[in-house]
Hints:
It comes from Virgibacillus salarius. This protein has 63 residues and is mostly helical. The chain is built from two helices and no strands.
Amino acid sequence: MRKYEADGWDALKDGRGRSKGVEELTAEEKLKLEMRRIEKENERLRAENLFLKKLEEIERRRN
């Protein structure tokens, strides 16, 4: 709890070990990394769309 309050979400990530740099990745690993990035972006956009739809519905009800 103290870590989160002091440094936020990033403080809770496990930073042990070494991850490869982009130049060390194979073509397959680069593709998987790009797919993961696109999936996260899609998830964020879906959540944003749901939020905007709810907001629009609330505004319609007020008028």
